[in-house]
Amino acid sequence: MEEERSYKLPNHTLPAISFKDHAGDLRKFEEFAERLGVKTHNTRISRYAQYFEDLAHGKTIDEKKIFKNVNDSRFQSSIDWQLYLLREAHELMWILRGLEKHAPKGIEAKVEKIVSGSDFAALDKNTESRDTQFELRMASYFCQSGCIVDLSTETDIIAITDKHSFFVECKRIAGTRNLKDNLMKAKEQITCRMPKKYEGRRTYGIIAADVTKLGFSHNGLTMAMTTDHARDIIQDKLKMIGKKVLALPVFSGRPDIIECLLQIHMPSVVMHPPATSTRFSSYSLRNYKIDKKSASAINEFYNISQVGQMADKREIPSETLKFREYVDVPEGAEFSMEREPVKSILLGLKVGDFNLESIVGSIKMSGVVHEFTVMELQMVLGRFKPDQIRRLASNESERWELLLQMFAQRYPYKESFY
Fold first, then answer.
1. What are phi and psi of 148, to 5 degrees?
2. In this predicted structure, what is the pLDDT of residue 265?
3. Cβ density class 196-208: b for 16+ within 10 Å, e for less
4. Where are the domains of the chain?
5. What pTM, to 2 d.p., does this model score?
6. How far apart are CA 109 and CA 38, in angstroms?
């Protein structure tokens, strides 16, 4: 399980794309839509662009003036707003990368549909717009890879390569109860709609499922110590869902349905180095009851799915980080720990029995209070030997050492501000 892993602290910042480029891509998306005859004035696309333009110019932003209809407890601090907006922007930017390479047949109706959606997926009660957006997210892989793509038929995506034709059905799955229904419906749709050959090429079916809300019911964000930690949190969710999918007859009797691709799209707050990011995490379930020709199609689709590994040429390069050698604790610093939960964890009670974001202790230095969570305590305990942990469990007066370790863990770099 992910909580048993340890993660090495990165010694470089993460490469990133500037907020100016975020705004620029969103304006390009507007221009693309306008050329199709789709109006974007006073839509969510224009509001996203305004937000990132203001951010790029260092303006003080009142998010509720831009997004007037958003009234939800998940949107509190500026970082909450930024993460939800990064999620929306990054998906549209990814779609744009595909559309700039190839504008599929039937794209006009699809763009009109996604532009009309509500501002945030987390608040979207009518799923039609986001369902369409997921279709375009998947279509972008094919467009970027040089395929001829058709979105105008009953099938969500038809993609043609030099060797094969792929018929793709896309489903967004919100809960365990409709996991089977959605996947079996996708299988049925492929069975009914996919001929043996299309445009002179042998055809293969692919089921693509966005399981973000199934994995994270709040449809919100993840918090992690490092980018590898964030990756594993999401991958563990995908693997768990994947086991449930493999128990279903998704491929049964259909060797031409070659893959079920699960995907989670989530923003993450990473502590080390401090950063925000959005992940399109995928997990591939393949049909192994296939022939050699089908194996060739699987390999081609794998190469298509890897187009996301290509770096954006506009990325700000990473920089080397220097590690802090000591913590300078000022006179008058105050230490505080929650007695019972900390003792229980030290005595070996599973961390999974606690809310990982619950506060277990704090340090007040120079008028600033730094609060630490169960997750941070969990990470720190990996540095202690069993006899040291037993000593801390029995001697409450020495637990201040845990607080200093958690502080050093949160601010490991010389550039850290506290």
1. -90, 125
2. 92
3. eebeeebbbbbbb
4. 11-309, 334-410
5. 0.84
6. 9
